[in-house]
Amino acid sequence: MEIVVRMSACAPVLVPAAVSTSSLPRRSVPLVRTLRWTRGGTRGRVQRTRCYREEGAGSGGASSSPEQQSGAGGKTPFVLDSEVTTSGNLYPPLQSHKKGHLQVSNLHSVYYEVFGNPNGRPVVFLHGGPGAGCSDRHARFFDPQHYRIVLFDQRGCGKSTPRGCLEENTTWDLVSDIEQLRQHLGVAKWLVMGGSWGVTLALAYAQSHPDSVAGLILRGVCLLRPQEIDWFYKQGANALYPMAWEELLSVLEPDERKDVLSAYYKRLTGDDTSIQQRAAQAWLRWEMGLSFFSKSPYLVAWNGKKYQNLLSPLVAGAETTESSQNKERGPQRAPAGQPPTPGPAPTSSSTTSQTQSSSQPSPSSSSASSSTSESSSSTSQNKGSYSSQVAQARLESHYFINGGFFDDDQLIQGVPKMRHIPGIIVQGRYDFVCPIANAFDLHRAWPEAYLRIVPNAGHSMYDEGILYELVRAADSFKNLKY
After folding, report:
1. 39 within domain boundaries
2. What's the pLDDT band for 289 if we cut at 50, 70, 90?
3. Same domain, yes or no, for 102 and 27?
4. Edge-to-edge strand order for the sheet containing 121-126?
5. CATH number, position 238
6. Which pTM value belongs to this model?
7. How far is CA 43 from the centre of its chain?
8. How many separate domains does the chain show?
9. Catalytic annotation on 8?
């Protein structure tokens, strides 16, 4: 048995022996350097390979012809370019050139905006939550000269109306909305990027409409299986963040704490607006507290009465003129093809739950919190509806308590429908919202995808290493013809 390690400009990606590149056809063009482990040790060589499996190879599952698998017109299949040059920074801010509401049902209207090149390759961004909404910043992961970038707020959130509405609001309603929007904009097929819940929705969409999807960029894999929901609201994450968990429980009565999800769902869907607001704030504070990988220089110390944030002596002693200058500069632009050099992490000295969470996000720094930073125009359009915080918490609890409206393991079982679609999976090693095991489970079912595990990164798409990989992935897909 051989294990192949596919080498690239950044972290290596493990490829199961079942898809050893030696079994792939020699006529494939792209070159990939491999290291092979044998009984005699390792040896390296350059080998021709492609990023999909031939019929009969691997661990089962449906397969299609090379022409179907290779994308439009049977051309050379997508292969992640290890030489792609990426600064690792977001593209500059830009204004949308088209916006509007699309009536997707008698009840719901979804808001969308289009950025970038009107004649460029189409890409659609699927935000997280459910219910977080989009911000202009999401468009900056894509080269505006190359891409026609579509952002939209899913049902019940952001500028879509009615905000916070749970009626006619399921995963399959959202899948239908994406397809309606694609047809409305005259798009034949598009690249799809999604993170967290956006991964869930992207997979559901790709499995329902594979002919509409040119490629997938997925960050922070969420399959919304029962064990993932239990990890976040029963046993798992609470062991890593006990103080934040205690704060989440503080909103509930003692007899409700055995079923946190049901108790919060009851509050968020009740009639008392003050109870709704308090529950929503605690719900989102717990979620955001786990979203960022901790780089805080603060030591959490009990002083006999309360917890305090104290600057670590190791950090304080290492303070130099050079580090002070770096603090002003922030992350440094990297040479072409290399990850950015990180600047010092932001610091915070707020509440206990925030101390555990690491550097604290600004309202626009995460898809999970983007709904809290809506413009006044958004508020006026949804006048009389739920606040953005309550809407997001309502939608999340609605989807979670219904298991995402999926059958058991549905998204894994449905992978054969979309295995021919090129994909890049970006996963933070220390993602405590969507643990790394989810990404491995998906990659085990879909070994044709490129899995990129980012060290020293958590859940947020704005963690430096993850941001770099997402921009790099979008830049790599510029070579895909569709």
Report:
1. yes
2. confident
3. no
4. 98-103, 109-116, 147-152, 121-126, 190-196, 213-221, 423-428, 450-454
5. 3.40.50.1820
6. 0.74
7. 35
8. 2
9. no
Residue 105 has pLDDT above 50, yes or no: yes
Q: Is 451 helix (H, G, I), strand (E, B) or coil?
A: strand
Which residue segment(s) compose the domain that 35 sits in? 4-74
Here the tokens at position 65 are 């012809």
Identify the active-site residue in 153, 366, 459, 460: 459
Task: Say yes or no: 104 and 195 in one domain.
Answer: yes
Check whether residue 40 and residue 112 sit in a common domain.
no
- Set 20, 63, 196, 370: catalytic member: 196
Active-site residue, from 143, 173, 177, 431: 431
Q: Which of 419, 427, 422 is nearest to 476 (CA)?
A: 422
Verify whether residue 443 is a known catalytic residue. Answer: no
For residue 402, what are its two tokens?
């219904």
Give the length of the chain. Answer: 482
Domain-located, residue 344 = no
Same domain, 133 and 257: yes
Claim to verify: residue 121 and residue 69 sit in the same structural domain: no
> What pLDDT digit, counting tens, does each position of 322-361 carry?
444 443 333 343 433 344 444 333 333 333 444 444 333 3
- With a CB cutoff of 8 Å and minimum separation 6, the contacts of 176 are 104
Could you tell me which of 281, 238, 284 has the C-alpha nearest to residue 258?
A: 238
Is 366 considered catalytic here?
A: no
